[in-house]
Amino acid sequence: MSAEKKIPPEMFDPKCNMTPEMTAKLYDNWSGYYEEEIITQRNCRAPRVCAGAVAKALGGSDRGKARVLDVGAGTGACGEEVRRSGFLMWVPGPERARKR
């Protein structure tokens, strides 16, 4: 992944008025370098926070048997972190973006 890639500036333009189709296209185009840019370069904590929240919510259950549906899975980073924390029945769910 190129370190030169940046978050698409349209994401932060309050006057952009992006349609759902425009948003889907933006994420499709961004998907190839999203994980490198957001998770790695910017040290995004969201996957770890998500896994912690799942663990807290399902604290008393058997992690190996609990089923976790990841809706809006995107790149799957949160689901992978949930799986690493012991929830083996993680199921990737629907995602609006066509590319991952």
Automatic annotation (TrEMBL):
Stored InterPro entries: SAM-dependent_MTases_sf
Protein's recorded name: Uncharacterized protein LOC118420557
